[in-house]
Amino acid sequence: MERLIIIGAGLAGLSAAIAAAKRGTKCILVSAQASERAQSVLAEGGINAALDTKGEHDSIREHYCDTLKGGCFLADPNAVKGLTSAAPKIVDMLKNLGVPFNRDGALIDLRSFGGQRKKRTAYAKNSTGKMLMTALIDETRKYESRGLVERLPHHTFVELSLFRKKGAGCFVRDSYTDEILFLSGAVILASGGLNGMFGAHTTGTTQNTGEVTATVFKQGLTLGNLEFIQYHPTTFSIQGKRCLISEAARGEGGRLFVLRNGTPWYFLEDKYPEYGNLMPRDIVSREMTALCGRDDCGAQVYLDMTAIPRGVWDNKLPELKEECIHYLHRDPAKEPVPVEPGIHYFMGGVLADSSHRTNVKNVYAAGECCCQYHGANRLGGNSMLGAIYGGITAVKSAIADYEQADASPQDRPVYGYSAETSAGHYMERLTGCLTKGLGVVRTEQRLLQSIEEIEALQNVKDMPVILRDKMLLGLAMLKSALYRKESRGSHYREDYPHTNSSYRKTSTAYFNAANIVIGFEAVPQRKEEQDEEDAQSFEI
User: What homologous superfamily does CATH list for 4-228+347-414+527-537?
Assistant: First the structure.
């Protein structure tokens, strides 16, 4: 094939670039910022793989089952089987690239993460994302020097070129000169989550604006499971965003409590004795929200980490301790810290099949921008794994599918383009509507109010094109939540508090150039004959 165009240079993008280069395919890596500033650098807790270095008889099958159960059985089981089967090979690859995983003697150490019955999360203190990114950045540079990877930093995605019968391509903009470039080749979207849609309410970087997803949605790509937004239970507010206290803190012995009638109540240990403080994030966040509204409980939940041994702080959680001292002026080894749920991850995004193909030929999606492995709720430790595996898998599909382009592109984008920055006032109003409608607990009334407010905003004249696209995406998120009349995973409807088996389906959102169409499609059936292939044939 002529080349691959990869939009995004985090874990998914870098993994895709390396996989393409290893197969002799040239690629262009497009990113608004350097990889060192990608969202992936901020990931803390670890990466899952059934290595069984702790002697707990863990297995790929158990990792597979925990992932499906954690996602309330909405994830494609074939995709999850491929992901969990490849996990040990991926961690081994990362180790060979120099990732300094914590060790237990000669073996990679593993920690406990929520929703999983075995220790299977490999980690590098609590800077795992930074360590993984450093290793992949260095590996990518080798292929840059050989001309197989070309970097286009400080370039932003404008739109896909969809008018040709064959091939693919997209337009990008140089942020320094405003020059529009056309890039020909299959396109892999690895642009990250929708953090920028939610501003200060999210733990992620707001440089992940959601603009790529908004634009391709307008252009006809189908999105899936947009209503599923993960609230991480242990965050605290800092200037302009929320700061994460990694789930690793609870994996190492941290305990959540609330004051009930003036006395600390470790409510998760009382209510969920099997998992305790390592219940899935959606359940913990809802419990916290409910307790803070009770008359016999205080309005604040605390994370008690005072029983964590000093050696664990020094060897496994040093950055976490420093962050608490710096931002909260509290030493978590000596006193509990106040926490509350914050938006942390988007399970929904561009709908892709188990090979990371989208509904548009020669366009693929991987990483957090992609709806694939996590269903209704993501297990901690599966995000970095999904990004790396997804990037590699998307490249394999792109190389297998590609047909040479048969026409020259037009000179300019066809959907209109504006280099103006988004109007801050209207972006704040959009964020307000989304956070009101898509909170930890949702109701039809709040969803409808938010939809009406955004539809009114759409009537404003002279609004930047990209902001209109983001409003369209926001409406798709709200309508997906409105149409799912049940509670499942991270989507909790106070007016429909029970899980309804008839909604064990993937929600879909499609823009037909006039209206947003919300639908549901069946979760794929498990293909048993692929099990052996998944376990044996995966190549990095």
Answer: FAD/NAD(P)-binding domain (3.50.50.60)
